[in-house]
Amino acid sequence: MNRWRWLGLALFVAVGVLMITSARPVVLAQGKTDDKTKTPDKTNGKTPEKTNGKTPEKTDAKAAQKTEEKTKQKTEEKKQTETPKAGGGEKMPFTAFDTKDKSFYQEQKTETIQDMKVQGQAVKQTQKQTFLILWTVKDKKDGNYVVQQQIKGVKMEIDIGGNKIEYDSTKKNAKNPMTDFFEKLTDDKQTLTFHISPKLKVTKIDGREEFIKNLSDINPQMKNLLNAILSDKALQKMAEPTWWAYPPDGVVPADKKWEAKTSLELGPIGTYNTTFDFTYKGDNKIGIKSNLTYTAPAASDKAGLPFVIESATLSSKSGEGEAVYDPKAGRFSSTSLKMDIKGDLKIAVGNQTTTVELTQKQETSSIISDTNPWADKKGN
To answer: pTM of the entire structure?
Structure first.
């Protein structure tokens, strides 16, 4: 068996694992400006100064009443956006998609170390990847938010057994099929539009077929794979963890605990089932624990790759992280997660089946900002 075919296989497997474990519960939300309501100047019981020898007229009763009502309303709104310091019922309002034409940036970093044994040979793979994602609120239609997603930048370093691959969209890269792919991926015309319900469920995605067509034009042989791993359902599931760290209806339960489950089906790569357990820790911090299990693809889904995953026992051995909520901005300012994955994959290439032993350590972090953090770099 050609060793490099197995290295290529390992890269495909890594992509599948990364697609779910990199989907951190991050929220791109913009808080509303909390201007203080101005109130009439107090006189401390003194008679106001006279103007032209006359005393100014008293404030109209109706105007005073309206001012008082407005002040009460502002106070109530402020209470709703503030997070109480103790007990259940903490408010975490989601305001990400409230402002039309507002854009938000998500810088997501993932570092992965994989140790594999393939036919008795040890292969080490390391990956560092950063994606800069732009979300833009377009509209609200049929009660749903319409939000556009675009990949604005990519940085990647991969070392497979001493063989290095690098790409940085902020720099000039040597032309090859990989750079062509990433340049197309970050093209301004490459967008997906998500329709998201008030309950934060993706109901529809526009632009998927054109998105895949543009990428597969570079290499038509990739079209079947892209259709499988970027199915409508898969894209929905990959987007939803972005805001799943929020408690149900934006209110922390009395016991300060809640969970979210996701099942990501990637056709010939298999299915990743993940459970996220959240615990409110106080001081606007949420603890995260995750548990991932992998299922090999069904017989009907195994076509489309240069290899077939016959069976697997992959699962996470530990997964812990934290999300930090910013009550003034109405969003999570940062998230982080560490996860260890271990197990075996039985894979067939041609007429030969081999077991791949995999141990993986991964760290993912996200930072959210209203401005482009790469704006001063070439190409952005």
So the answer is: 0.73
